[in-house]
């Protein structure tokens, strides 16, 4: 017998569940709104900092910028969410609804005023639409056939990029010159040459960055981890061989640029192949039993030689022969392939990065390769089931090798890579425990070997590790801005704590809101000794954080200005880059300080760089040449994915959010090389969102038909 209390008992549970659901939905929407607010703030304050102003100078015009940008960003997120949610089969898309309304309005007006013209236009529109559809289908099939294999994409990229190393040859800045100098000093030490070391009048490579003398071991060593020790040895060794053979570094730098160019083509092609062609689907279909009762079905396994059956069979399966799968397991169409190739072949960000010898482009290309492997792991994850595709759990050997190698290159090219990899290790322990061995081998082991090995070299005095002051760029900018604009506002206690570390007068003179390097006394030209790296001690550095906190509390507005001025450009598409990638093409190190490279195609480099600048300066149309455009849109796409609860996809996109955090804390504002990883994978992020949105719509349509549909995630 059921009592009244028993019959009502489920209600509170349902009520609690519904409240939690509402709270979770509100939290997701709040995160999306916060992302839009951040973008709006960065765009609104841009004009203030362009004029070297302050957020205290906020006007009604800035409010207008803020409101307009917020509404635009929120509309983009809203459209993405609407397109990604399941909808009824009889509910047309928003774009089609708008176009249908416009065409209907035009047709009604023409039919009333010019009936004959209306009939003629309808006829022309019918034939034109048919022709366009046919042409698009033919072009799409041709593009699909031309890009259905990784080696084909590699060939397209190599041919399309060939003019870059052939005419521009190499691009570099101060970093690779410093690495060559470090290796040269280390080589001289190894061969027995006496050189200066610690001393007030000595000036060695470690003084250029600079690295505090308390970090130098007592036994002389000249190799540092400032620009990553593995790259320093590799680049420096190549330059040393070049000097031995040709009496200059130039040939070595050109050879290094060509190697990076080839590596870039391989990484981009490998990732594009995974995103466009979904190659992991082919083995599942290539092993299907041949059904001779249905000759219309293609046979994917054919004998290598009919006369010699012992030679076995080969797979002839390609995307053009693969039967269309349900989304998201469907290969990309012609339009997605065209946009992806256009991005890689025409965007100056990609072109100039292929030969630029600095750590960020190398990391970005390795990250692109790594990002493609993550997508394969995402798409092959299955909870189990009767579907043959649900059994794809084991990681193929070539995928595991790609995962390991891309992780290793990331670790040797950027110090912050190990933070990103460590975060991913923690996340996958909850999301994909079945393949823990894959993640242990591809993520954990490289971190232990490479990061641990470099730390061991530093602890034994074999190399000099990077100065911790390098990670305090935001704090240094805050102190320096206060010292410049309000020196009397620095508390005496904070001044006493900073006295052994910094010369506040020199900090004020060196302050530049776009870049923290001058405050750190980095560089060799016109060095201002604001950072007392020769005499500072570890005990002195213990007082730094408390002094900084006192200064911030006494000057909150100036400190906020210093923070925003150093990071807003990464999320403001209207802001021109502080240092664009064309800088490395025409830097003084290439055009003036090189031996013979400056004499080859000198004017052509200037012309190419100037054309890229001219394109980037065009309002709106030039945004596609700058990294902050892709960073901003990627942030908004991530906000939409949060609202749509695509948690497994967000797992693979989480490194992009971490990279945005790296940008915000970087020592320079809108430094384009820091945005390269996000820009390179932007097309792939869009394609992933499109596929999952189509899968959601297809799932809702199938569900309305009463049949079972496996969820996309």
Q: What is the helix tally?
A: 30
- Which structural class best describes the helix and strand composition? mainly alpha
The order of strands across the largest sheet is: 1-2
Characterize the overall form: globular
**Amount of beta strand:** under 5%
N-to-C terminal Cα separation, in Å?
43 Å
Name the assembly state. Answer: single chain
Runs with pLDDT <50, length 5+?
A: 1-9, 385-392, 701-713
The total count of strands amounts to: 2
- Indicate the radius of gyration in whole angstroms: 29 Å
**Largest sheet properties:** 2 strands, antiparallel
Please estimate the helix content.
55-70%
Could you report the average pLDDT, rounded to the nearest whole number? Answer: 86
